[in-house]
Design brief:
The complex is a heterotrimer. Chain A is an alpha/beta fold. Chain A has one domain: Beta Polymerase, domain 2 (2-Layer Sandwich), CATH 3.30.460.80. In chain A, about 20% of the residues lie in helices and about 25% in strands. Chain A is elongated and about 70 Å long. By secondary structure, chain B is an alpha/beta fold. Chain B has three domains: about 45 residues, no CATH class; about 120 residues, 3-Layer(aba) Sandwich (Rossmann fold), CATH 3.40.50.12280; about 55 residues, no CATH class. In chain B, about 45% of the residues lie in helices and about 5% in strands. Chain B is built from eleven helices and four strands, in the order H-H-H-H-E-H-E-H-E-H-E-H-H-H-H. The relative contact order of chain B is 0.09. Chain C contains 19 helices and eight strands. In chain C, strands 1-2-3 form a three-stranded antiparallel β-sheet. In chain C, strand 4 and strand 5 form a beta hairpin. In chain C, helix 7 packs antiparallel against helix 8. Chain C is globular. The N and C termini of chain C lie far apart (about 55 Å). Classes of the chains: A alpha/beta, B alpha/beta, C mainly alpha.
């Protein structure tokens, strides 16, 4: 894990290399995180992967988070790992909800990290974030024709209420 | 002389039960020698040949050689695999032959949570099975959705297919699955385990889905009365202190 | 001209020409066949005896050669992650256990450790050792089930019974410590739920004393078995670089030659104090994966023995009453204990806002949990990085241009657990 000054250094170098791409950093519980501009995410990831001093070549994971009601609403979090130095770095792309029927979009990093294919499909499946340039952007875990983005915070949990005997009279013919 | 020996152990007017080992030994010996005749032979035939009705015989055959279908969905599948293992051997009940093809299987053991994507597949596999077929909902998830009351899990497999026996547990111990299996066998034999009906004298008090009137039939009312009477007499015979004073 | 080299049906001058040729190429070379021109897509449906769970594979075949492979998942998707957002942290533990249902202790550990990182809570030494013992027992259990079912897929039926016999002994130990065979809910935030009972150490020692000879038995059955070798040698080879690109970890990566094991590179819990080796393969074929996992069985037994010897005395769960339930005997004497108990059971403990990603080495690879907390008693997001999900991306590379029978073998050696893939 790069320590706090190391993290600041990375952020500065990144901002030098790709102007305005890092919106912030935070270093907590021994973990380093860069908050990135979603439109420049590919530049950031490429820089982190290819620069000889960084070499974060392994993408551990790609998470989607819904921070409702905070703004920006969605976050796509990349967990990067530098194997020779055993250092982890987190990059969070903070994406806004365009609202209405439109879906938020982000560039896909499948050319940089082929292992992101399934992870990006999963984020699309559960949050509706479309990854531009993904070879196969469709649902992965929900049925193909499912409507709705289940892991968004405003999507209901679903399921059925448990019917106890005392509640039965209130729900006549629930068995149908 | 041999006849006297046999008479000594099994006098004709008081037939001893077949479980008496000495009697069986002597009879078997005589049978092999061709010496068994007359009333002894008749008694032997009565006691050793099984006569039954056709459907009972079929039930016996079906119950004792069920072919379960391998339908492992999730964690319960691991415990289902272990009923085949040597410790919880289900082969002693005739069911070690887990058939992958539904056409060859009798019992569909739904082991694991049924997600909404899998439910149509389950139904198709069930439809492909040939009669007679049974379904065991193994575990809490296939019986009722288990702990997962959410958008992705069907709350009980009996929402889309008939289930014959539910085995609770998360996952149920292999012994529990075997116990459920035995109950299913009794059901197939035509001798279902009365269970709570016998324990609580509640035969006839089952609440089936009622019609719009929602009224109980006279038989049901009578059965409830009987059960209540029995419970009342049982209660009064117990001491108040141990009951905690509940009416 | 025709030489008999490992396998029999090869036209090759020397052995070097053979290694590196896929089975298809060898056979085609041997019989002078031409590939068929028509692609035939079959569906190895979710219900299939050899797919280790409900995995659906759309396989495009040319004759018997796999030309394309598309896995379709989601048939056991349970919405666990969404359900976790609705429950207090304590109640999340039984949910996340059931994700990768053969490595339940690892699932629990990764969540509990992530929350402990957010809470800055320190786990006592004894709890750490107990956690390691149970996790290594779980690794044994998972590898035994894998070995039994994989050998069953390849036709070695007796291995199934042997492995499940020993697996039952591991489950007996779990039942002794926590009351349940699977999904024990033994790890809690702060340590473990309960101390191990009297007799556990004795049984565990007896188990560890006997296990190496059992592993010898398994190796005696399969290691030099010609059919097994024929089916697994040089089959499903993917290069190390490609595996790293795909995000594959665990025994698959180690079999390809990369010595990457999170227990060694980022030691967590008490793995620093324990001395063990990490088996690494060379070629990365099915046989190497098998050998790596069987050797991991041995190493796990070593770790358990050492951890048992070095098990320190002390508390088995942290002291912080705001997070951990007070011991029951205190409830009748101390008012604060009663209040803490009440708050913890009704509402649950609150976790200060933050995010944490914690990863450990599960039997299938890097298992990670990303926890986002916002100060309330329920997590905002719990997302698991499941190793099987990432490893499944390698299946296509492994099976392409191989026979369909090799697909079965590749799937077996991949060790996917659909509960983890689908969550």
């Amino acid at each position: 894990m790069p320590d706090a000054p190391g993290l600041e250094l990375i952020a500065k170098e990144l901002n030098d290399a790709a102007e305005g791409s890092v919106l912030g950093t935070y270093h907590e519980h021994g973990e380093a995180c860069l908050i990135a501009d979603p439109d420049r995410i590919l530049d950031i990831l490429r820089w982190l992967r290819d620069t000889p001093s960084q070499e974060y070549r392994f993408l551990s994971s790609l998470h989607g988070v819904d921070y409702l009601p905070a703004k920006p609403r969605f976050g796509v979090v990349y967990e990067l790992l530098n194997m020779p130095r055993v250092e982890r770095l987190r990059v969070r792309a903070a994406i806004d909800d365009p609202g209405g029927e439109e879906l938020p979009e982000l560039d896909s990093c499948v050319e940089l990290f082929p292992g992101a294919e399934f992870h990006e499909r999963e984020v699309y499946d559960f949050f509706g974030i479309v990854f531009r340039g993904h070879p196969d952007m469709r649902r992965i875990l929900m049925p193909e024709e499912y409507v709705g983005w289940p892991q968004r915070r405003d999507f209901p949990l679903g399921g059925e209420p448990v019917i106890f005997t005392r509640d039965e009279p209130a729900m006549p013919r629930w068995y149908e | 002389m041999k006849r006297e020996k046999l008479r000594a152990h099994a006098p004709l007017d008081e037939p001893k039960p077949v479980t008496d080992l000495r009697v069986r030994q002597i009879r078997a010996r005589d049978l092999l020698r061709g010496d068994l005749e007359g009333p002894d032979l008749e008694q032997h035939v009565e006691e050793s040949v099984l006569t039954t009705t056709m459907h009972k015989a079929l039930g016996w055959g079906r119950a004792n050689s069920i072919f379960p279908a391998t339908f492992g969905l999730a964690c319960c599948a691991i415990e289902m695999m272990s009923i085949v293992s040597p410790r919880y051997d289900i082969a002693r009940f005739g069911a070690e032959n887990l058939r992958a093809s539904p056409r060859q299987a009798d019992l569909l053991i739904l082991s694991g949570r049924v997600s909404i994507k899998m439910a149509p597949v389950c139904r198709r596999i069930y439809d492909q099975m040939l009669e007679p077929k049974w379904v065991m909902a193994m575990g809490a998830c296939s019986s009722s959705g288990g702990m997962f009351a959410n958008y992705a899990v069907v709350q009980g497999a009996d929402k889309f297919m008939p289930v014959d026996i539910h085995v609770p547990g998360c996952p149920p111990r292999p012994e529990a699955v075997v116990y459920g299996f035995n109950k299913l066998q009794r059901m197939i034999l035509g001798n279902p385990d009365p269970g709570w009906r016998k324990r609580y004298n509640g035969a006839g008090t089952e609440e089936w889905a009622r019609e719009a009137t929602g009224e109980a039939s006279p038989e049901e009312i009578a059965a409830y009365e009987a059960a209540r009477d029995l419970a009342a007499t049982h209660e009064s015979s117990r001491s108040q202190a141990s009951r905690g004073g509940r009416a | 001209m025709n030489q008999r080299v490992h396998g029999g049906d090869i036209l090759a001058e020397t052995g070097e020409e053979v290694v590196g040729m896929s089975a298809v190429e060898r056979t085609a070379a041997a019989e002078g066949l031409e590939a068929e021109q028509e692609l035939f897509t079959i569906n190895m449906g979710p219900h299939h005896p050899a797919t280790h769970g409900v995995l659906r594979l759309l396989v495009s075949l040319e004759g018997e050669v796999v030309r394309d492979l598309k896995p379709v998942m989601g048939y056991v998707h349970t919405g666990i992650e969404k359900n976790c957002e609705d429950k207090s942290y304590w109640k999340v533990i039984p949910f996340v256990e059931r994700m990768d249902y053969l490595s339940y202790f690892f699932n629990m550990h990764v969540f509990c450790a992530g929350v402990e990182r957010l809470l800055e809570l320190e786990v006592p030494r004894r709890a750490s050792y107990l956690r390691v013992i149970h996790m290594e027992l779980n690794r044994l259990h998972s590898h035994l089930v894998w070995l039994g079912t994989s050998a069953l897929d390849l036709g070695a039926m007796s291995m199934f019974f042997y492995c499940f016999r020993d697996r039952d002994r591991v489950l007996d130990l779990f039942e002794m410590s926590s009351g349940q065979r699977m999904h024990t809910r033994y790890f809690q935030v702060g340590g473990v739920f309960e101390d191990i009972p009297v007799g556990f150490a004795h049984n565990l020692r007896a188990f560890c004393a006997e296990m190496p000879s059992r592993i010898d038995q398994y190796e005696a059955i399969l290691n030099a078995n010609e059919i097994f070798l024929e089916r697994t040698r040089n089959v499903g080879v993917v290069s190390r670089e490609r595996l790293l690109d795909l995000g594959v970890t665990g025994p698959l990566l180690r079999a390809a030659g990369e010595p990457w094991d999170l227990r060694k590179v980022t030691p967590y819990e008490c793995y620093e104090d324990l001395d063990f080796n990490v088996p690494v393969g060379t070629v990365g074929d099915g046989y190497d994966r098998y050998r790596v996992r069987v050797q991991e069985l041995r190493e796990s037994v070593r770790i358990i023995e050492q951890a048992l010897e070095g098990l320190p005395e002390g508390p088995w769960i942290a002291d912080d009453r705001k997070v951990v339930l007070p011991p029951r005997d205190e409830l009748s004497t101390s008012m604060e204990a009663l209040i803490h108990h009440f708050k913890l059971v009704t509402e649950g403990f609150r976790v200060p806002p933050g995010e944490a990603y914690y990863a450990n080495e599960s039997p299938r690879g890097e298992l990670g949990c990303f926890v986002v907390a916002d100060g309330s008693a329920k997590p905002v997001r719990v997302h698991y990085r499941d190793p099987s999900f990432a490893n499944l991306q390698a299946l296509r590379d492994m099976c392409l241009n191989g026979y369909i029978a090799d697909l079965i073998q590749n799937l077996a050696m991949l060790d996917p657990i659909l509960g983890g893939i689908d969550r």
